[in-house]
User: Fold these one by one.
Assistant:
Number 1:
Amino acid sequence: MSKDMMRAFELYQPDSVENAVELLGRFGADGWAMAGGNDTLDWFKDRVKYAGSVVDLSGVEGLSGIRETADGVEIGAMTTLTEIEASPLIQERYSVLADSARRVASPQIRNTGTIGGNVAQDTRCWYYRYGVDCYRAGGNSCYADTPQGQNREHCLWGADRCIAVTPSDTAPALVVLDARMAIVNADGEREVPAEEFFIGPEIDIERMTVLEPGDLLTAIRIPNDWAGAQFYFEKVADRNTWDFPLVNIASAMFVEGGAVSRIRMAAGAVECVPRRLSVVEEIVTGSAPDEETAALAGQAAVRGATPFNYNHFKIPLLENLVKRAIRDS
Amino acid sequence: MTDEKTLVSGIDIPSPASATDDGGVLGTIGRVGASRRQFIKGVISSGAAVSSAGYVFGGMAGCATEEAPMAGGVERLISLNVNGETRRVDVLPYETLAMTLRYKLGLTGTKLGCDRAECGACTVLLDGVSTYSCSTLTHTVRGRAIRTVEGLEGPNGELHPVQQAMIDELGPQCGFCTPGQVMAAVALLEANPSPTRDEARFALSGNLCRCGAYDHYLNSVMRAAQSA
Ligand SMILES: Cc1cc2nc3c(=O)[nH]c(=O)nc-3n(C[C@H](O)[C@H](O)[C@H](O)COP(=O)(O)OP(=O)(O)OC[C@H]3O[C@@H](n4cnc5c(N)ncnc54)[C@H](O)[C@@H]3O)c2cc1C
Ligand code: FES
Ligand code: FES
């Protein structure tokens, strides 16, 4: 069934953050911030979501580009994934982010898809995207969590009525880098750590992030803390192009005198939010990043995983990715 | 705001009040008001009508929105820079570049496969960068240099080296994906005139071929790189 005709909306093209925020504040829940439009237009074409007033961010000055700051790097929310993967600064200091951006979708999507849109995108649970009246859509059932439910892509942790997962490839990298998300609305700017930016159903079942109507993500700030660490990123998906992660992993670690002195690790597509693997970080710190440590870390990482009918495979997958992140980074 | 009924004329949209909550999966789709998510009533049940409206988009554009845009919204009459020419065109706020190119400007070399950023048939170049025109709103590319497969033609009608190489290497089979493959290859070779085969594979990875002519396309790109 083709549903390609979008419902009419009005399009606004502000040229400054101030004007964009004014418009988004004015339209509230009927407004929609549009960056590259890759996710946005799918929702509109499928007629599952709608906004009467779309605010195109492409002409907003100051939202795009990668800048060095006193304590790190600031990436404008409208910076494309291609720009990030190709940036010498990002490659040199935060290669985990460049590597994750390179694994998103397809070349053309990365050419127009922005980092802001990538972190703010909605989940890919196909029941939800099809438009069924599930918990996340304001209803009172989950179609994925049933005996017949097709839940191969769904979560291992954090099920709370909804069992959808975070789809973003860059999100785990940003959590690992301890990035800060700069959000502006009519009341001013606030900064939220990446780890708190993504939220699960227990906080709000209808959103994937703290962003609310009227909010504009303006920049992602990456502190120097993890610059130049030994990084690892790996994504496993059905196809190398287009497909969302079945599991992805990002890690940053420093090794001193043969032992891990500091490490941060996060996995995507196993929970509604990027899953920080604190237990791994604890086990590994102080040990040599060898085969034995890696094996222990892998086992610890998957403890407590609660699979559904079709996603048991994610458990050994995550275990192996954790092992590799420690052994091969 | 624009009335749904003036948009897709002829489709009867049930009122939110008639929605039922207990009709199983399909029955509950499209609750408006009752649902916290902003569904559009009745669209799924009248999907056939919607799709035909989509395909006669060009002809129906005039009747799609009779109302003037709300104050502050984009002007519909805009200039686009397409294949080096300035084209004046009346563009709806929610119109994709693929729609404008094909149904307003007659540039049907750009194909629509999936209309969902999932196949690459609609690939065009924006300032030399490969882009899915099905997933780009036309109003967002004012002031950019848009290039389509029609714009590759030389001054005397000769083919672009990539097109010639595709003929020489028997690149396409049915040809539907070809304009997209050509544009992706042109973008690659302009940025990187002598790619490795792997680089070419990566650059063309956003273009599906239903006929599976991938290797032939790669041969073509490598030949074009040598001949350029
Ligand atoms: C076919 C396909 C395959 C994909 N595969 C992958 C994949 O493998 N891995 C992956 O990580 N992603 C994947 N994606 C998602 C893709 O990366 C994102 O859609 C893209 O990065 C979104 O960027 P955009 O600029 O186009 O966002 P848009 O579509 O413009 O926006 C997406 C969402 O973010 C909100 N938003 C955007 N910018 C801001 C801002 N500055 N402030 C507030 N809200 C904002 C919008 O309101 C919207 O809700 C895929 C998408 C498609 C269509
Ligand atoms: S038609 Fe645009 S990607 Fe398929
Ligand atoms: S040649 Fe037929 S789809 Fe590619």
Note: Residues 10-59 of chain A form a domain with the Uridine Diphospho-n-acetylenolpyruvylglucosamine Reductase; domain 2 fold (CATH 3.30.43.10).
Number 2:
Amino acid sequence: MSETPIAKPHVLVIGAGHAGGALVGQLRQFGFAGRITLVGDEPHTPYHRPPLSKAWLKGETTTEKLALKPGSFYEEQHIGLRLGERVQAIEPDAHRVRFDDGTTLDYDWLVLATGARARQLPIPGVGHSNVLSLRNLADAERLRNALKVDRKVVIIGGGYIGLECAATARALGAEVTVVEHAPRLLARVASASIATFLQSEHEAQGVQFRLNTGIDAIEGEHAATAVRLSDGTRLPCDLVILGVGAEPAAELALAAGLACDDGVTVDADCRSSHPDIFAIGDMAKRPIPIYGRPIRLESVPGAGEQARRVAAVLCGREPSAPEVPWFWSDQYDLKLQIVGLIDTDATSVVRGDPASRSFAVFHVKDTRVVCVEAINSPPAFMAGKKLAASGKPVTPSELADSSADLKTIAA
Amino acid sequence: MARITFIESNGTTHTADINDGTSLMEGATGHNVPGIDADCGGAMTCGTCLVHIDPAWVERTGTRCEHEQQMLEFAGRDGDNARLSCQIIVDATLDGLVVRLPEAQI
Ligand SMILES: Cc1cc2nc3c(=O)[nH]c(=O)nc-3n(C[C@H](O)[C@H](O)[C@H](O)COP(=O)(O)OP(=O)(O)OC[C@H]3O[C@@H](n4cnc5c(N)ncnc54)[C@H](O)[C@@H]3O)c2cc1C
């Protein structure tokens, strides 16, 4: 894009995160010639968040490497950036947003991409300076400064972010205890077999677990000195990491009267209840055809897919076929790749030997693969992605038989 | 630095000057070359940065590691000198490289 864009139509994107960042580039790729403005309250151009709990936190990659696009990109592509600015209100009828400082900006199409924020816990002591959440680079910088050899770290929450932080904290030499109120790890997002496998891997690395356990309070005058558990135990600590999930940042949409229900309710084209306002990324709840119900996903691939969808709609292009949701997580030398969502009605079969640390759990419902969780097994993930999308009939026994050729099964 | 040509499946051509030490994927996304989604940002997880290397350049772009090989093979997309562009690191020896973009990513 070298010609200066025309002033209209004006696409205004609120939230310079993964979804917003992907959208502005995609619009230009599709030849959008109007004006584009990307507003974000963080001081950074859009960046990759996954490394914040993994390679970046471990010090294996630099902050520059996190950027989605080089700094020169936005000028070259004629994308107006307003970083470090916060939108305070949307006025849908006037097609206008209002910033914190009272100034306003008009739009023709508005795309909300404000993401999610780390959930807080309503317990005494969560406000202490050494009780940290992890959602953005500023959080990650605080965490990296606090994570040191021999520090006693209590992680509240045994979900992906909690477990990735546990793995990184161990790699940095900290002592780690993970407290989870459910009876097992990853209760909502992974099968029991995967959760059990990951727990034993973490235990072998020296992580302690307290499952089925709530938190009564975080003790300490100004800083946390111990976490008091629901069973009365006190865990002394130098640092507490809160990894108890995220909530959609949907207040702007709610206040503007858009339909919301755990995120902004959108249709398959990511359009909200107002025809000129779209919502994408972690904040949007959209219908996913293969599941036949609206789902709010928190994943990079989900953000990318929705960005491509809205770009196609705004450019009057045929959108590509809906994708099967997928996700990944890295812990120690384990790469977990998941395609599809866990379905408790499905039959699960293990392919390969967990003791080899390379295996997969296939979830099959009515002869169709609905989900695959692969540990250090890219073939199972790729074949699963293909099978989940094609719906090709399979039998649990052929999937469980490691000598049956996966390529043939998926072909 | 290397000047690299990306040819879309519809024939549209893009050239980009890519710095040494960056991956072909980073170079392409940094220049907004269409058709490279690179969802995972180079973690060799997604398979959405697939390109086909021009036959004349296959030797100079190196070979697939086992992980990359498996990803491409099991997606049924290992033909036509396919590579994951996040796994090709650019240097001056790749000046003039030509790659073709698939119609759709994995
Ligand atoms: C530590 C961590 C690890 C992760 N690991 C993985 C992983 O391995 N794999 C995976 O698939 N996903 C992972 N995710 C999830 C993934 O990063 C998110 O799904 C993705 O970033 C969602 O993109 P988004 O644009 O919706 O939200 P975000 O990327 O969060 O961006 C939203 C942006 O909007 C800004 N904003 C909010 N309100 C306003 C306002 N009123 N005005 C202006 N700006 C505003 C926010 O500050 C933020 O910058 C991880 C997330 C975290 C935090």
Note: The interface with chain A takes residues 29-30, 32, 34, 37, 39-41, 43, 45-47, 67, 70-71, 73-76, 104, 106 of chain B (CB under 8 Å).
